[in-house]
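Retro notes (design track)

What went well: tokenization of the new backbones is finally stable.
What didn't: we kept losing track of which sequence belonged to which structure.
Fix going forward: every design gets posted as structure first, then sequence, in one message. First example under the new rule, 62 residues:
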């Protein structure tokens, strides 16, 4: 008697949802659902790291 049921292949693990829109991620563009969402995320990253504070006047050259 097998009290150790072998699990054939990968169990149906639910794919992580796209962090952008929450749709199921596509294998081609994990962890996003599409290239579009990947682009959106990338843009968020870039705009986050390159967050340039708007300087309006207020320049004080010593
Ligand atoms: Zn998405």
């Amino acid at each position: 008697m097998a009290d150790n049921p072998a699990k054939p292949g990968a169990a149906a693990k639910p794919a992580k949802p796209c962090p952008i829109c929450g749709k199921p991620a596509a294998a081609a563009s994990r962890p996003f659902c599409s290239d579009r969402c990947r682009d959106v995320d990338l843009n968020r990253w870039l705009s986050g790291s390159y967050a340039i504070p708007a300087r309006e006047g207020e320049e004080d050259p010593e």
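Added context from the reviewer: The CA atoms of residues 41 and 47 lie 10 Å apart.
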